Amino acid sequence: MTKPEVEFQPGPAPTELVIQDLVIGEGDEAQPGGTVEVHYVGVDFESGEEFDSSWNRGESISFPLRGLIKGWQDGIPGMRVGGRRQLTIPPEQAYGAAGSGHRLSGRTLVFVIDLLDVK
How is the chain split into domains, by residue range? Predict the structure, then answer.
């Protein structure tokens, strides 16, 4: 797989988590609270500006879902290895309302996630 281009989404930012499968995987299924190995790109919904990407670092990343933002905890389970999924995550399920102390607080975020492995 290659680094995805994140499509600009017209209209107002969603108020609920939006899950869109871009590629359906055929491997093992990610479980709530499980550990996943992923490649991902994150962009700001409004500006389309990329703020993070494992692709730019040249290596995937592995972590337990329970340690991640709620949008990932809710949006990755059910995904299968080999799949690519886009999550559009409102601030409440990302880094909180504006002023919460994180540089991305108050922002709606879009991630395109490739699931490489589950543990």
Answer: 18-118
> What's the pLDDT band for 1 if we cut at 50, 70, 90?
confident
Rounded Cα–Cα distance for residues 49 and 73 (Å): 23
Catalytic residue among 76, 111, 113, 114: 111
* Chain segment 77-91, per-residue pLDDT in tens: 999 999 999 999 999
The CA–CA distances, whole Å, from 3 to 37, 38, 55, 88 equal: 15, 12, 6, 18
- Phi first, then psi: give them for residue 55, nearest 5 degrees: -60, -40
pTM for this one? 0.95
**Whether 113 is catalytic:** no
In the residue annotation, 63 being an active-site residue is answered as no
d(CA 76, CA 80): 9
Domain 18-118, classified CATH 1.20.120.1200, yes or no: no
Catalytic residue among 19, 28, 44, 52: 52
